[in-house]
Design goal:
By secondary structure, the chain is an alpha/beta fold. The strands form three sheets. Strands 1, 2, 8, 9, 10, 11, 17 and 18 form an eight-stranded mixed sheet that branches. Helix 1 runs parallel beside helix 3, helix 7 packs antiparallel against helix 8 and helix 10 runs antiparallel to helix 11. The N and C termini lie far apart (about 55 Å). Bound molecules: flavin-adenine dinucleotide. Flavin-adenine dinucleotide (FAD) binds next to helix 1, strand 3, strand 9, strand 12 and strand 16. The site of flavin-adenine dinucleotide (FAD) has 40 residues, from helix 1, strand 3, strand 9, strand 12 and strand 16.
Length: about 400
């Protein structure tokens, strides 16, 4: 079997890459190890209006559950700030239907798909790449000029090509259950080391009475399940609003710190597999969609030489590289904050002048720009307090 482009992984990023490759006339095959698209779901499904646009879909009622205007952010001591975007800024989506809609678009423009097909080995040839697949009974070989590894957080393709692993992987857990949101068109974000050390916890509405409640933490000795139990039972806001029963539970990983190199002879890596995820929010669909479109187009040119494929690295770095690396620096710093520092941070943000900056520049896809703007609007005393604390926390941690 011979193809111009084979995309490993029919998640959102693989589907977008396959669509763009097929649109450019390349004979494209999408491989998925599972027997159906979009399962299991390992996502909260909160995506910005811009991320949906980058994915190439319209906000259809078939997968949009809820429209989101902003966020209520709670400090560890329970102080909260409301960030109101004033209009729809994001959607809460059904990931299974969303993923299927993206695959359907790829098939509409001529891509082919093979389900229950796991790529297990990859070997270079001079003019391309041979992939070994494991289908339920038969191993099979497929030849491609270019392979795109969009095989998610546990990517084997990047490892097999010697492109390495992302800097770190957070662990996440989430339930969908009965929950009374304070505002159904706002998400709730909970900071604090008691419930989500190193990251944050959330409640994201799916209906008036249901929400996805979850958290992510640094890899830890304590299983995330224990943090979730504590969040549901002991967090002052969550325990009051959670009504005690859930219909699904999800575990997943969030890779942070993009790979330095995402191209090798005959291979490109995109999406979670490349760590193209916003380090401050854990959102992978916005940066991944941008990179997938570039990967699909570069792969469709059909030149497997590293020199030619390296154009992909340059192009995605230009679009999202700075945001991802700045986001990683901020994540590394704030992730180490004590609860007291987090309280002080939220206190600083409650200032009316700073809130105006947040309203003007608040953008879930480019949070590092907002942080830069906030820093430039802090008076000298507050800037000194914040940076002084950051340094103290960092030194203490060494
Ligand atoms: C708890 C949690 C909450 C999240 N919430 C959000 C959110 O609200 N908003 C957001 O933007 N992002 C969120 N994310 C991140 C988001 O889910 C990912 O960034 C996104 O799914 C990445 O898409 P992908 O296509 O790169 O990888 P995936 O969605 O993981 O798809 C990879 C696909 O490859 C397949 N595959 C793997 N290996 C092989 C193989 N060898 N052969 C064939 N197929 C293979 C897998 O079966 C899978 O279908 C969240 C993640 C977690 C864990």
């Amino acid at each position: 079997m011979k193809y111009d482009v084979v995309v490993v992984g029919a998640g959102p990023i693989g589907a977008i890459a396959a669509r763009c490759s097929a649109e450019d006339g390349a004979r494209t095959l999408l491989l998925e190890e599972h027997s159906s698209i979009g399962s299991p779901v390992q996502c909260t499904g909160l995506i910005s209006t811009e991320a949906l646009h980058e994915s190439g879909l319209k906000p259809e009622s078939s997968f949009v559950h809820q429209r989101i205007r902003g966020a209520n952010v709670y400090s560890p001591s329970g102080h909260s700030i409301k960030i109101d975007g004033g209009k729809t800024k994001a959607y809460v989506i059904d990931r299974k239907i969303f993923d299927r809609a993206l695959v359907a678009r790829a098939l509409d423009v001529g891509a082919e798909i093979m389900l229950s097909a796991r790529a297990t080995a990859i070997k270079n040839t001079e003019d391309g790449t041979v992939l070994t697949l494991r289908r339920p009974s038969i191993p099979q070989k497929i030849w491609a000029r270019v392979v795109i590894g969009a095989d998610g957080a546990q990517s084997n393709i990047s490892r097999m090509c010697g492109l390495g692993r992302v800097k770190k992987t957070l662990t996440g857990i989430q339930i969908e259950g009965r929950y009374e949101m304070c505002d159904p068109d706002f998400v709730e974000i909970f900071l604090g080391n008691r419930f989500a050390p190193g990251f944050f916890a959330w409640a994201v509405p799916t209906t008036e009475t249901f929400a996805r409640i979850g958290l992510c933490t640094e890899p830890h000795n304590t299983p995330p399940y224990q943090y979730l139990t504590k969040l549901l039972q002991e967090h002052p806001t969550v325990s009051k609003n959670y009504k005690g029963s859930y219909t699904s539970i999800t575990f997943g990983s969030i890779p942070l710190g993009a790979l330095r190199e995402t191209s090798a002879h005959g291979v490109l890596i995109a999406g979670d597999a490349a760590g193209q995820v916003k380090p401050m929010t854990g959102g992978g669909i916005y940066p991944g969609a941008i990179c997938a479109k570039i990967a699909g187009k570069v792969a469709a040119r059909g030149d497997p030489r590293r020199k030619s494929l390296a154009e992909y690295d340059r192009m995605w770095q230009k679009r999202v590289g700075k945001e991802l690396s700045r986001g990683m620096q901020i994540h590394d710093t704030i992730g180490k904050f004590s609860d007291q520092r987090l309280d002080e941070l939220i206190h600083l943000l409650s200032d009316e002048k700073i809130m105006n900056v947040v309203r003007e520049y608040g953008d879930m896809d480019h949070p590092s720009i907002l942080f830069g703007k906030i820093a430039s609007h802090l008076n000298k005393k507050n800037l000194f307090i914040l940076t002084g604390h950051m340094l103290k926390d960092l030194i203490k941690d060494r």
